[in-house]
Queue: 2 jobs
Job 1
Amino acid sequence: MIANKSTQELYSSFTEKMEQIADVRNAMAVLGWDQETYLPEKGAPLRGQQLTTLSTIAHELFTATELGDTLQELRSRADLTPTQRKNVELSQEDYEKNKKYPASFVADLSQTTNLCYHTWLKARRANDYAEFEPMLARMIQLKKQETHILGFEGHPYNALLNEFEKGATTTMLDTVFDAVKTALTPLLRQIEERPQVNKDFLHLHYERNKQWELGIALLKEMGYDMEAGRQDVSEHPFTTSFNPQDVRVTTRIDEKDFGNMTWSCIHEGGHALYEQGLPMGQYGLPCGEAASLGIHESQSRLWENNVGRSLDFWQHHYPRVQQIFPDNLQQVPLDSFYKGINQVQPSLIRTEADELTYHFHVMIRYEIEKGLLEGTYTTKDLQQVWNRYYLDYLHVHVPNDTQGILQDIHWSHGSFGYFPTYSLGSFYAAQFFTAAQQQLPGLSQQIAGGQYTALLAWLREQIHQYGRFYTSNELCEKVTGNKLDFQYFLRYATEKYKGIYGF
Amino acid sequence: MIANKSTQELYSSFTEKMEQIADVRNAMAVLGWDQETYLPEKGAPLRGQQLTTLSTIAHELFTATELGDTLQELRSRADLTPTQRKNVELSQEDYEKNKKYPASFVADLSQTTNLCYHTWLKARRANDYAEFEPMLARMIQLKKQETHILGFEGHPYNALLNEFEKGATTTMLDTVFDAVKTALTPLLRQIEERPQVNKDFLHLHYERNKQWELGIALLKEMGYDMEAGRQDVSEHPFTTSFNPQDVRVTTRIDEKDFGNMTWSCIHEGGHALYEQGLPMGQYGLPCGEAASLGIHESQSRLWENNVGRSLDFWQHHYPRVQQIFPDNLQQVPLDSFYKGINQVQPSLIRTEADELTYHFHVMIRYEIEKGLLEGTYTTKDLQQVWNRYYLDYLHVHVPNDTQGILQDIHWSHGSFGYFPTYSLGSFYAAQFFTAAQQQLPGLSQQIAGGQYTALLAWLREQIHQYGRFYTSNELCEKVTGNKLDFQYFLRYATEKYKGIYGF
């Protein structure tokens, strides 16, 4: 029956099903966005149930035998365009992966995740890792099971990494984080020997409304399309997309911290520009999705750091910011402002870390996750392991679990293999930005003039338009001529901090 | 197989399926709410597709044979509680009705509705009924077909009425609207013979933020639970519920019209109190749903008019409102304010009509809908028919289609049989409020003191808690001892306007 259908017909039936699945998933994303922005307190429990129902439906649709058969048949057709073929191949991969999970495991994981998250919330409030430990142990057990369900080559952690960054392996990450350790440690020590730069002026009173207006202005100037998105306030800033024509960002505002809102806006703006740049005609299909979490993070980091913490960027924006907050900044020259916003200072909390020490935070989590999966560590050791790592790598003493091992939500959600993509994002960003500088003459002057059109067009052409057509590895090679190479970040960081700390 | 299951088991499987359907429908409601409040412009087309997909899924779930079999078997069980039995009976009724629609008809109706709506938008902008007429004719054709799909006794219009108000018939409505015509016409003429009251002070400048704060304060004082809901701004005010713990209202603010925001807040607040009062334990089941549109409207109208336009109500609130807007209202005594907000003045636009002439607007639409279905009118006649009715009943001359036959969205949506529930709501409200006055000693003084706790508790106990357990007819008789009787509204209106216009 299916074999008699034309490729055109089959492909249409495939895309129709994929769009339907995307519609359900995007409806979930709307409910999720609402949950973080506007949901009244008492509405939370049933919202959870509504999300679970939609998730079950999406899973059922994406494991339907008919879809599997269509994919199977399409694989055998010779008359697919390259994009169509890629969509079929990747969808089949996703489909086969989905089918591997026994229903009982899915239910168990979903239940454990829910429990684990609530236990984490309680334990963090109580500042007591011991309360969280048994649930975390249970979660690790399930995650080990998941590596066997998914299958892997080499290290079991590879199975989980692949969920977030296709093709990433411990071999690759060991190389990357060895470089972090051996190259960034001396750089950090060099900085520590120099007199510290001042950033006190960033913590004066910055009025909420004025910050809000500034954030919106920055987003618009970056090229974020406000008719295809919006900004709202949430506890933790995030970007969410319901399709390339409806990509929303959130921010938070701390009146005692100029930086919080500013770079969260630029960061989420970077994510959002990627989503707005995905091809609308590939809605619901792999080629309409982001390449990987690492590539997604490369877009946010490139805007946040390579552009948004550069002297060029603030040459244009600083005079205006001084005008908005004259009492705080009129007496602070651009050069001091630039140094202040780039202060390097080892600290306890990952999300508040500077551009350099950030990667030690990620590395610590990577070491721990790998160790848990291979059995080097057990959850019982973790508090001690955590605190020792912070002392060794960052020379900071962890005073309690809330500021230590309980700070991040990820493990309670069962997200193992996620953290490394944060560092990969920065390293891809440095490499991409170097390529942009080479390929776009005058980029530095454009940024200093508040002009990002050429840069955005370049990102759209080089990266955004492809969706998942290329893996992150392939994309990196296509755009930069090389595989991911930590040296780009090292060069960028060394040069930057040399200028700022004068060594 | 199914016959071997215990009633308990079967009922659980039934409720589980119903909750799942409710989850999907409530997800649609969230997407709908977002569409009217926060959706960026370019996000509209795919939002439409996402809603269609969810609607298809909900329809499939609610026509699944397994659900039908479960319902069939449950009907035969003797050991159901009365509430359980009612849930089963009503669900089976809904299920059978859903099954009646051929898939081709559903698709045709959905497509026509979409086209019809967009044609209406264009025609209204162009102020040209002729542009809308062919699509409306097509819609009427489908609606006639629908009456045969659904089946009916007596008049075909009964089939459509039943969709919104179970048990309503043209016989019942003819009686009601005959009373409107014969009793309200002389009342209106009496009013028109008296000097008009002044309401110019309602159209001075009322600052947006102050109006917003006042609206929120009124909602809270009525007893609307802000932790189980929220207010936002939309073009047309509405209430939507995702479950009794998340019931949201919207309003609009016109700085040149004190009334627009004020009574829309109270009106939507009335709807929202009903939804917040539905039994949480019946989520997804008929006994967790509103009894009918007429009963829903009775709750909004009771608060908006019987409470919110009464002298008692403003005795409490007016001094505060004077303080908020001293320039506009300090010189306007309470008595003049009360008269102004109750001004009767025949006009062209239904949604802006006063409490009395409103029912002529509804009656006109009722006469036309009935006439279209029985063939007395064709869509080609309608512009003329409309304009003559407005001249005859309201003595107003319709200057153009935008302010005439094209003013309301309902027909373009295929909502025939909906309008009458607006009038029924007012008439139920008058009858319910009379019963409340009899059963709650001191109600008038309580309202004059800003105390609505007893009234709300009475509504919760008499009406809200039952969901769809009783039909509107049964509910009315249970609460008031009588069937719906227009005389309650007539007495209320006569007494009120006698006081205001002094005849």
Note: Residues 1-100 of chain B form one domain.
Job 2
Amino acid sequence: MMRTRPLKVALLGCGVVGSEVARIMTTHADDLAARIGAPVELAGVAVRRPDKVRGGVPAELITTDATALVKRGDIDVVVEVIGGIEPARTLITTAFEHGASVVSANKALLAQDGAALYAAAEQHGQDLYYEAAVAGAIPLIRPLRESLAGDKINRVMGIVNGTTNFILDKMDTSGAGYSEALDEATALGYAEADPTADVEGFDAAAKAAILAGIAFHTRVKLDDVYREGMTEVTAADFASAKQMGCTIKLLAICERAADGGSVTARVHPAMIPLSHPLASVREAYNAVFVEAEAAGRLMFYGPGAGGSPTASAVLGDLVAVCRNRLNEATGPGESAYTRLPVSPMGEVVTRYHISLDVADKPGVLAQVATVFAEHGVSIDTVRQQGKDGEASLVVVTHRAPDAALSGTVEALRKLDTVRGVASIMRVEGE
Amino acid sequence: MMRTRPLKVALLGCGVVGSEVARIMTTHADDLAARIGAPVELAGVAVRRPDKVRGGVPAELITTDATALVKRGDIDVVVEVIGGIEPARTLITTAFEHGASVVSANKALLAQDGAALYAAAEQHGQDLYYEAAVAGAIPLIRPLRESLAGDKINRVMGIVNGTTNFILDKMDTSGAGYSEALDEATALGYAEADPTADVEGFDAAAKAAILAGIAFHTRVKLDDVYREGMTEVTAADFASAKQMGCTIKLLAICERAADGGSVTARVHPAMIPLSHPLASVREAYNAVFVEAEAAGRLMFYGPGAGGSPTASAVLGDLVAVCRNRLNEATGPGESAYTRLPVSPMGEVVTRYHISLDVADKPGVLAQVATVFAEHGVSIDTVRQQGKDGEASLVVVTHRAPDAALSGTVEALRKLDTVRGVASIMRVEGE
């Protein structure tokens, strides 16, 4: 039987995502009510600039005073789609203090202050849900937190930023350079005017921190995540990747160490084999590959951003939180019981693809090979190409700790016969 | 703070899946306890043949009296991995009556009697979870029921049977015929001695019924699902598919009609373009493609069967059900509020690829084209090949109701100039 008093929702932010949340709450009100077991009502919408509110939201619901809205006391669920650290953080904790649960799409805040927010939610007996914070509409947080709750996840490897995937896909398919591909992404609305957060990997790093924490039941902060952007990936790198039967993706990789005693989280461009399911993720799509002890290899694929897909994730959480509320219960809170330390990048085991410009004379290969051996790095393949007194050496290593690999590169730079290191790229996905 | 009284689990069935559930419950007891908030204890294991129980289960837990086990009164959760209709159905309802929730992997039973089981669970205030019933370890039921609860799903299209995907993949890559590929699947353990349930599409049809019900919030019974097996797919069909840039998959397709007033569910082999994400699902893997109004196009990929993957799904449900129990709440029950009727196959809108053996004489194409026109079926492409007085016509239609398409084929069979219909295959995924 359906309860007749509606659950009241406060919406913080009414941009691309927020306006879509408001629209669906209105157009699909009957469906939402049936799925929740009670009607839901949009009780207020807090915005910075009321003149910019998009169509469909009744004027009487609009306010510029977000704090007063979350303090009203009759709000059941606060939906936070403002983004950024403040005022979002204060508004969310204020919401908990005033008896509301929270649905957030705020990856930056969750990556930085997830533990404190979880603690505040638990203290006040409220829910904190954030499916939309990672990979947009792709159901990922809930499968990791709940469907795989009886399994042991060993690795999460994903394409979690649509902008950079669009740029890399464009470079791969058209042979364009980075700048040209970025211009196209900007023109099509896939990249923002200032693309730093995307192309330097900050956005992906926040998502990696969130995913690693959930996957390994431990705390991983944004600062724990090693981060390299993709602005230095060149058309030549793509040509090298093709020769190896690979493509290049900006990957977020969260791994449990082989001995199980620590975890790592990192974001960087990497070559992956064309046969890997992530290699065929095109345009601005996202996909996350999960390896679990019992479940095996899983992949989740879909649009990683955009107003409608993100709104879908927000509304799925809204339904869950409202159902919990009717049940007078809360969903799973933070699970950080393993308290596994996060190891630095140097301890990550990976492979390098290294292109060297070298003098074209006898003995160079022997010199180079000696440097690898001295650092304990085993070579998988070497390809040598010479022309006009100059030559290039392309070396692909076997798996070794990143510290040994980067140490090798530093030592190679000091060799007289090495004129330059043309490119270094990690190789993943095998 | 952790509760110290353990939650008691009764396991019904201890074959490939059950023994793996028992093993993980023992080896990962601490992880499960931390995730649930209380320890879980295997309280009894009911089997038909105690001499066949696999390693690791203490002898004192084994019983042949499943009914007495579920009636004990101290059982919190019954895990049913027996399969089939009886005695599973009676044991599950008995479990509800005696205060236990149920986790089941039983697709046949859920497809046939899901509504009655849901009603029994609700009547007794218990949970019924069954992630493992569809697509093994791939988190699918929970994302559809919960993550997409705020969205409107319009289509679910999936490869949900690993045996048939292995056979079709083998035919595609090696050019083998059906019998040869089936023999290989049997030798490798991918097909059972009697492969009927898989190759005739019964297994996929049960999953389609479950998926359609969840996706569209309505009741879809096994009998509502149109079903065609894949035993008649030939090497020639694969050759035709290749010429169209397609491959052939056995698909389970659940669709909402364009007017929203009804739904359909069907299982049959179909050509899909190589560019479609489902086309690259190889070997015995499963994948389900979901199209939702706001979320867009999502795909879930992973192993669809096997002891460990299925056990992973069962244990994820076990954790959720145990958490609900500690919260004194239940998860989402049946959601069938839309009460949408299920339309017959004739009303499904699809495309046909038809190969005809025809007399090699003038006017044949005109005759054939007239038959299509009379049935209101528009032709997309025709390819004509002739040799030695015989010829073949390959026609690919535009989209039309299945009844009009099959009516066209019947009429074509009656033409004097048509010597035979060599193959008919639906074309999907565009």
Note: The first strand of chain B starts at residue 7 and ends at 12.
